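Incident log, support desk, overnight shift.

02:14 A customer reports that sequence design results differ from what the structure should imply. Their input is reproduced verbatim below. On-call engineer (initials T.W.) acknowledged and began investigating.
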């Protein structure tokens, strides 16, 4: 057994204790004040000197220097919770009504703390520096950018992040090359018409009807303007219009999200097509588009071939051939993509926590989401071993 796995198993109780503490005390994106404080306290107990970084004021960065000089690799964990009501009945269930760690970030934070302990015990194997990044605000896609702006990637040669994942079998880790998670945005269009009586629609200009038509018309962009071989999703999740059943709506709002893996299409082709369709539809219905807003929440996450090959060897060291997991590309977004875009030698790994017998195969962002805590040492060991393997290439 690799030393990193031995140490991860020795620290299993500590990691579970920290994970349960964070689970019980979730904090919303951009407000991870107590989580930041506890992370810093734990790192200081280990003899490290963490820094609180970023304009958000809750990011944490700390370096672990090996006994020999060399390159620098950054390991990232996110810390924020979700606006989800917990439906589990654990002794450590969320104490905050309407807020829950329903995506595994409590486990990410706890296992990176565990990895810090393991790396400190393996300093003789570290040729260079391992930088630990505890990132806020992943769920609102502002945290990674904030830490980049704070200089957390200065001098960094490679990065790695893990995501505990309920669709990956417990005891395995997915590190495939190629597309892993999609680019995601948030778009909003506001249409303006003219109010009128529902019995005399010709006297008004129906913004609600125009918005409904625009929502339908945008779907042909997926099927007729972009290759069927490349996944693309345009979802209208929110339509708001009108004040009363017999009044012509003077305004209407459309909000939604685009998901795809093609960066050029995401940044240019799709937004241009959507704007053309919305403005053209509005014009056909005699309306005006008064608000055009697009927020690029995340870029695509693509694992490089070299990083994937390195990670596969790491998995096999820790878990054997049977430990290599499988996961198809996901249309979900992840703001670690901005770090991957900044540092080309970057990898996102999906640590399996899915065990139907334990009920840990519930979907992410669900109030029933659970973690197979027996898999937490796998995350700890992978964080540490991958860093060591990279620095000793």
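02:41 Re-run completed on a clean worker. Output:
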């Amino acid at each position: 057994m690799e030393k990193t796995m031995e140490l991860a198993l020795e620290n299993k109780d500590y990691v579970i204790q920290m994970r349960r503490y964070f689970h019980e005390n979730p904090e919303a994106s951009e407000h991870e004040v107590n989580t930041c404080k506890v992370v810093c306290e734990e790192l200081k107990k280990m003899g490290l000197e963490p820094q609180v970084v970023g304009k958000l004021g809750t990011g944490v960065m700390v370096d672990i220097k090996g006994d020999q000089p060399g390159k620098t690799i950054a390991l990232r964990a996110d810390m924020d919770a979700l606006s989800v009501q917990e439906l589990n009945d654990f002794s450590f269930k969320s104490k905050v009504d309407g807020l829950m760690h329903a995506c595994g970030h409590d486990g990410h934070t706890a296992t990176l703390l565990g990895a810090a302990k393991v790396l400190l015990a393996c300093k003789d194997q570290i040729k260079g520096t391992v930088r630990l990044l505890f990132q806020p605000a992943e769920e609102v896609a502002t945290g990674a950018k904030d830490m980049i702006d704070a200089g957390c990637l200065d001098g960094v040669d490679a990065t790695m992040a893990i995501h505990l994942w309920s669709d990956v079998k417990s005891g395995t880790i997915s590190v495939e090359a190629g597309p892993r998670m999609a680019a995601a945005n948030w778009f909003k269009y506001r249409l303006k018409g003219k109010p009128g009586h529902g019995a005399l629609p010709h006297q008004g200009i129906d913004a609600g009807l125009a918005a409904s038509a625009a929502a339908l018309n945008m779907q042909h962009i997926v099927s007729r303007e972009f290759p069927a071989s490349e996944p693309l999703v345009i979802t209208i999740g929110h339509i708001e219009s009108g004040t009363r059943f017999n009044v012509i709506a003077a305004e209407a709002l459309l909000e939604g999200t685009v998901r795809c893996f093609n960066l050029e299409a995401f940044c240019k082709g799709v937004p241009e097509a959507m704007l053309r369709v919305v403005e053209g539809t509005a014009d056909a219905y005699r309306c005006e588009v008064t608000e055009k807003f697009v927020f690029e929440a995340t870029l695509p996450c693509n694992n490089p071939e070299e990083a994937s090959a390195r990670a596969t060897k790491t998995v096999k060291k820790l878990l054997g051939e049977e430990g290599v997991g499988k996961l198809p590309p996901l249309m979900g977004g992840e703001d670690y993509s901005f770090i991957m875009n900044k540092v080309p030698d970057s990898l996102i790994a999906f640590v399996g926590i899915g065990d139907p017998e334990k009920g840990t195969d519930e979907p992410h962002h669900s109030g029933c989401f659970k973690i197979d805590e027996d898999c937490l040492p796998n995350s700890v060991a992978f964080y540490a071993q991958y860093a060591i393997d990279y620095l000793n290439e």
